[in-house]
Design goal:
The protein is α/β, with parallel strands linked by helices and 475 residues long. 40% of the residues lie in helices and 19% in strands. The protein folds into 3 domains: 56 residues; 207 residues, Endonuclease, Chain A (2-Layer Sandwich), CATH 3.30.870.10; 165 residues, Endonuclease, Chain A (2-Layer Sandwich). Strands 4-3-2-5-6-7-1-8-16-14-13-9-11-12-17 form a 15-stranded mixed β-sheet, sandwiched between helices. The chain is globular.
Length: 475
């Protein structure tokens, strides 16, 4: 063995234990959930040559270093004096829920909105194109994926046409989700006078980016003329939407919103745009449109830059106000421990708790982790369904008869702890009926998970699924 090899081995023997101890202490000081803390510490101790690089790349738990650069969304004086809509003010449970969310940094709900659930890709595409073509002043789009396909091309062309006519167009894309469409593919929009920003870019590589590489902007928000918005789970790609309904299309949902709540969605875009581009969009404050609607909307936003976990805590808290039912549709079911306990407890209390997921999603590891959670729920009073009609990508929650959630966040640890997400908590009997009909449609096309199945179908498979569950904090 040469002298150089001996020096390298000696250096590793001296410094590796110090690095392991330093990172273990750092992880402890981050105050993660206990399960996540244990997984990372075991990984760097037992598999240091894998665990240490992995932690340095994707181990960041909070947007700590860049938090000061990202504007707080809701530092607006009017939020402390805004009157609650009657549907909320008249219900002690809902008033307590909105107060908790407001204390966590979210805006109070606004009344006078008109909300419509859009649960077909062709309808969503048609609505979006209509919104873009009808714009008079501004179009702001924040998206995780812009597909390099006919849908993505059509949207870029529509946006470019409006920018050429003098409409202020801003397109904000995630640096990973839209990695191959944020430059040359969106160039026609730039040439027409619009602007394209990249949130947390990963290319070209720069020092310090790797710690946040796994913290992605998963929000899907479109705001036109500060008067109407769309928010939900659909990306701008052919899997989600298009001019015609196709059999291979994923099943997803968006909320079309008109009314005062649109301003709160605009503030989310403004904060993200300023963080990504260091530019202020200088949006105008126009009178709220008279929609004639009666829907109350509390705009939701969560991310690793927040001091609290508003989306996760909202879902758990919203479940607690249920008196009759909680129905959930989600593509991935990898809940936190508090969320899992709440779901089981509600079912034991006699609430009608149902969870519907795709039988096979587009990600195998989360599916295996989900199966581990389903085994834990088997035999409880929670009703479980697996949708067989295709990829179910909707993120919906229905609570009793008049409360529902429509957004971009999956019911999994990645969405609720690490991604930037957005959605709407809607207090409306009419919108709740739309969500109920949509989730019922999913359940009608699903297989019910049979409680009578053998407790152990395959020990080896169950072990693999439990390992996938152990990896859930890293997914």
């Amino acid at each position: 063995m040469g002298t150089l090899e001996q020096i390298l081995i000696g250096a590793i023997a001296v410094f590796l234990p110090a690095v392991v101890i330093f990172l273990a202490v750092l992880i402890l000081r981050e105050h993660r959930p206990p399960s996540s803390t244990m997984v990372w510490i075991l990984a760097i101790i037992l598999l240091p040559y894998v665990g240490i690089p992995l932690y340095l790349i994707i181990g960041g738990y909070r947007f700590r270093r860049d938090r000061h650069r990202k504007p707080r969304l809701y530092d607006h004086p009017h939020l402390t004096t805004r009157e609650l809509p009657g549907v909320v003010a008249d219900d002690d449970r809902l008033r307590d829920l909105t107060d908790q969310l407001h204390a966590a940094g979210l805006p109070l709900p606004t009344g006078g909105n008109k909300v419509e659930l859009v649960a077909r890709g062709d309808e969503a595409f048609g609505r979006l194109v209509e919104m873009i073509r009808g714009a008079k002043r501004s179009i702001y789009v924040e998206m995780f994926i812009l597909g390099r396909d006919n849908v993505g091309q059509a949207i870029v062309d529509e946006l470019a046409a409006q920018a050429k006519d003098g409409v202020r167009v801003r397109l904000l894309l995630d640096g990973l989700g839209a990695l191959f469409s944020q430059y040359r593919f969106s160039k026609p929009l730039r040439k027409a006078g619009g602007k394209v920003g990249t949130f947390s870019p990963i290319w070209p590589p720069r020092p310090g980016r790797t710690r946040h590489m796994h913290m992605r902007n998963h929000r899907k928000i479109i705001v036109v003329d500060e008067r109407e918005a769309m928010v939900g789970g659909m990306n701008l790609a052919h899997e989600y939407m298009g001019p015609d309904h196709v059999a291979s299309e994923w099943y997803d949902a968006m909320a079309a919103v008109r009314g005062p709540a649109v301003r709160d969605f605009l503030r989310i875009f403004d904060a993200d745009w300023r963080f990504a581009t260091k530019e202020d969009i200088e949006f105008e404050t126009v009178p709220a449109p008279a929609t004639g609607g009666e829907d109350a909307v509390q705009v939701l936003a969560g991310g690793p830059d927040a001091e609290f976990l508003p989306l996760h805590d909202m879902l758990v808290s919203a479940m607690r106000v249920a008196r009759r039912r909680v129905w959930i549709a989600t593509p991935y079911f990898v809940p936190s421990e508090p969320m899992m306990r709440q779901i089981r407890l509600l079912a034991e209390m006699g609430r009608d708790v149902r969870v519907v997921v795709p039988k096979v999603s587009n990600h195998r590891i989360p599916d295996m982790a989900r199966n581990s959670y389903f085994r834990q729920l088997r035999g409880s009073k929670v009703r479980l369904f697996t949708y067989t009609g295709g990829m179910l990508h909707s993120k919906l929650m229905l609570i009793d008869e008049a409360v529902c959630v429509i957004g971009s966040a999956n019911m999994d640890i990645r969405s609720l702890f690490f991604n930037f997400e957005a959605g709407a908590l809607v207090y409306s009997r009419g919108v709740a009926q739309q969500v109920e009909a949509t989730i019922q449609m999913y359940m009608d096309g699903s297989e019910a998970v049979d409680d009578r199945r053998p407790e152990r179908e395959s020990l080896a498979l169950e072990i693999v699924e439990d390992i996938a569950r152990l990896m859930a904090p890293l997914l």
